[in-house]
Design goal:
single chain, 428 residues, alpha/beta, five-stranded antiparallel beta sheet
Length: 428
């Protein structure tokens, strides 16, 4: 397919004033400019009144947790996990995860998200959902371990994770990638962490972890190991792998220096952290120190929405209030956290930008809605006024997945019917 986008507005960082033409040929952007290019097009798309921008990348989620939206509300993290989520997850099945994943993917596509980084269970089911719907994802089978003498070579969780690599890594022409995942320091023993780190490095994969999410987690880690969770994962070799670390709320200056030195991507999940009462990640300080920050939603059981735009907007204003300093975040700097940095955290170096040779992962945002007018600064509009309902089109690798309320790769009636059936059966 070959598309010509015309009369488009781009973000100022791309250096074009006025109406812009952009060509998508197959998976790739092949032209950007103010002169109409010659050629024949499968379709011309008039973008008058629209902002054409890179799509969003969800740097941390558990998409099949759509099963638990609204379940176990108003509890702190450890009670939420131990009393509600962990027992409920014991009842998961391949079918429930498949339909829950499809529902999650539909929500993300509608909200302009083309790719997500996910750690969970029954990964085959989520992988099928990804490949069928045209999105991108970095998926990992979550590893937990509690026996200090564990034989990881014989561990069923580890063997499930290993089996995903030949089956799905780089499937869908690279849309689907397999990462390795350690749930957290408090759910893993040192021996397991070293084994998973060695396997990840040997197979040139990426790592996905929860890190320093709560104050109690950090205190308990010092009690167990005499070091912080960041130092624990550094000592076990985990951070020597390309790593996305979710949360990082309770980190000190030494921790941040380690994360910067190890080139760790820090996935900021402000809505989830606020809702669970975990605290506020020190994002301004991290950016000041040169850490690579991206945006994640977490699962909908702790966020209730898979909406990177909302999390980005929350991050944009949250820290101003916490620090009582309105200039500690800048709207123009926030967009990259939700787009380019998220793509890089997944190892997708050609994504999250608009330019010739970049992957055609694009969204169209309607800037004509009353709540978006007038707009003196498109960055400020995105950070403070635009809503996900303003997204009119989502494209991944040159394929339109959603446009004006309609899905092209998802039968929403079927997904909703099966999701409701699974939900009803799950909680009876």
């Amino acid at each position: 397919m070959k598309y010509l986008f015309k009369n488009a507005s781009l973000l100022p960082e791309y250096g074009y004033a006025g109406a812009v033409y952009l060509v998508v040929d197959g998976k790739t952007i092949t032209y950007v400019g103010t002169e109409r290019p010659a050629g024949d097009w499968t379709r011309e798309i008039d973008c008058h009144g629209m902002l054409l921008m890179p799509a969003f990348y969800n740097a941390h989620c558990h998409c099949a947790m759509t099963l638990f939206r609204g379940y176990g509300e108003d509890l702190p993290l450890q009670r939420w996990l131990n009393e509600k989520i962990f027992p409920a997850e014991e009842r998961l099945s391949d079918e429930s995860v498949y339909w829950a994943s499809k529902l999650a993917i539909a929500e993300m596509i509608k909200n302009g998200i083309v790719s997500f980084t996910d750690m969970y269970f029954f990964i085959d089911a989520t992988a099928r959902a990804v490949l069928e719907t045209g999105v991108k994802a970095n998926l990992s089978r979550c590893i937990v371990s509690f026996d200090p003498d564990i034989d990881m070579a014989a561990d069923n969780r580890m063997n499930e994770a290993k089996a995903l690599v030949p089956e799905y890594h780089m499937a869908g022409d690279g849309r689907l990638r397999i990462d390795m995942s350690l749930h957290a320091e408090y759910t893993n023993v040192e021996k397991a962490c070293r084994y998973v780190a060695d396997y990840t490095a040997a197979n040139k994969l990426r790592m996905h972890i929860h890190l320093s999410e709560t104050e109690q987690e950090v205190k308990d880690c010092f009690g167990r190991h005499g070091v912080s969770p960041v130092q624990f994962f550094e000592n076990t070799g985990v951070l020597d792998c390309p790593t996305t670390a979710a949360h990082c709320v309770w980190v000190n200056e030494d921790d941040m220096d380690i994360l910067r030195e190890k080139n760790v991507f820090v996935a900021h999940n402000p809505v989830s952290n606020l809702k669970l009462g975990s605290g506020v990640m020190p994002m301004p300080r991290m950016l000041e120190k040169g850490l690579r920050v991206c945006i994640g939603t977490d699962g909908v059981a702790s966020n209730n929405r898979l909406d990177v735009l909302r999390d980005m907007q929350t991050a944009a204003i949250l820290h101003k209030g916490v620090q009582r300093q309105p200039d500690c975040t800048h709207a123009a700097d926030m967009i990259a956290l939700a787009t380019r940095n998220g793509a890089l955290s997944q190892g997708r170096d050609d994504c999250g930008l608009i330019g010739v040779g970049c992957a055609a992962d694009l969204i169209l945002v309607d800037t004509n809605a009353p709540h978006n007018r007038p707009s003196f600064d498109p960055y400020a509009s995105l950070c403070y006024s635009v809503d996900a309902s303003d997204i009119r089109m989502t494209m991944a690798d040159g394929v339109i997945l959603y446009e004006n309320g309609e899905y092209t790769t998802i039968d929403m009636e079927r997904v909703m019917a099966n999701a409701e059936r699974v939900f009803d059966g799950y909680f009876k």
